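Weekly structure sync - notes
Attendees: PM, LS, DV (DV joined late)
Agenda: review two folding runs queued last week.

Item 1: First target. Sequence and structure tokens pasted below for the record.
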Amino acid sequence: MSLIRNTGFAAQTSGLGVLIFLLALTGCTPSPPQPPGSSTASATDSATSTSTPSGTATPSSTASTTSATPSASATLPPDADETKAPQDGDRVISSTITHDWAWPGAKSPFKTTHSNPVPLAPPPAEPLPTLYTIGAGQHPSDTPPYDQLSFRFNGAFPSYDISFVPELIADGSGLPVPMPGTGAILKVVFHGAQAHTADGKASTIKSSPAPSIGYRALTRYAPAGDFEGVLSYGIGVGRPGTAVQQTKVRVYEVEKIEQGRHLYVVAIQLDASSWK
């Protein structure tokens, strides 16, 4: 009788051990992969689908603001509106779109902020980014084709606001600045920048195109102020025969070495598709 009981107990113990082993084996087996078309998404996928690329402006009822930090990119065109022929040693350090194609109206202006120390350098250097040259160029073979006005600064990138305005007003006098031959006016206001020497006696601009540029999208430009770190320009936009209501604008920044000088370029591009 004792032998039978012991045998039964051993059988029960053996069965229990097998059950525990099977349960442990099941727990260590990875779950089968999700079949294609599964609705389960990871947190990374969700963030990717809802994120907006940094530095991209889209038309909205509020201002589009960018805290721009230039980064290297192989997909952006180099600055092609040099004021002099390229020479050995010229190179692009970084190129960044700060505002992609959009219409910067009064309710959705482009705003880009750069934080620079003041002064940038001790005297006799100018304390703020200074405008060095202005360049203009046409790019009819790009997609979309565009006309470009580029502002080259010494020292650093300034902050800036860009929007279409009904009239170009001079910052100091409050008087209108004539912009003949334009269908619309794009105003560019650089903050923390200047176009004059520290003593205020001379301009820092070494070269620039004639005010009447004469392109179809980019017709002309005009200065509208240079006082207390605020530097303003108006850009005249033409009107095609079909009277385009909203000419799209793109802005990109290029940090580069040009003619042996370290420059910071703010390139403003006007979509010229309507003039093709």
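Item 2: Second target, run right after the first with the same settings.
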Amino acid sequence: MTLYVSDLDGTLLDAQGRLAPSTRAGLVRLLDEGLLFTVASARHVSSIRNILGDLPLRLPVISSNGAYISEMASCEHELVHAMEPELARAVLALIQGHGLMPFISTHGPKGDQLFYQSVHNEAQQSFVDERLRNADPRLRQSARLQDELHDPAVTFVVVEREAPLAALQAEIDALCGDAVETHLAEDLYKPGWPWLTVHDRRATKDQGIKTLAERYGLQDREVVVFGDHVNDIKMLRAAHRGIAVSNAIAAVKEEAHQVIGPHHEDSVLRFIETDWRR
């Protein structure tokens, strides 16, 4: 038996960030037949649930790039990888020292919260507007982000032009070393405004898949993963077979065992259906 794990945006989802009806129908059919399948995404589990809806996943999802392992239907976390308080404060100070404003996800007694202080460009406003449209219960506006770090920080997201983000990423990596995981990636839905994400070092998709397999007795299963972007590279390296969609960035294709069709043509579903039945 094989465990299949797919990224969402740019991989399993269509160009509008939706699960195409044909992909949904195919996955439902295969899951009903016993397919072992889940997703590993940069999205929070609440966003994953909004997109996948009633898709009958029997396994938890890996969300926020591996920061959480979560049960999709309830959005309850089985595992949370948050930063140490001193590390989170240091990251926030670096971001603010560059004159930038992050979004900060935290996890504590009140559950998951997503804080922002103010917006400074159109992409940050789009980030806020999307979460308002989706009635994201985590979203909070704060007078001072420093005051919100009494709960453990899980993710920092900074949305800006590439040059200032690259400079910030270099400084965070230099100061924090392997204590954090950083990704600088283009926003598929708003080109020209990339995101820099900062997580605890344990928050990676490959580690999330390994932990999931251990918790559910799947260590002996072959693992096949699908991805398209920089945050998928480590899981492609760790998998028995890493599959890139044709729209993936060059670095992902270089790591892949195979390149299939583009994300908007049901390519992941077609591959899984053929491979699993074989």
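Discussion on item 2: The first strand starts at residue 2 and ends at 6.
Action: LS to circulate a short write-up before next sync.
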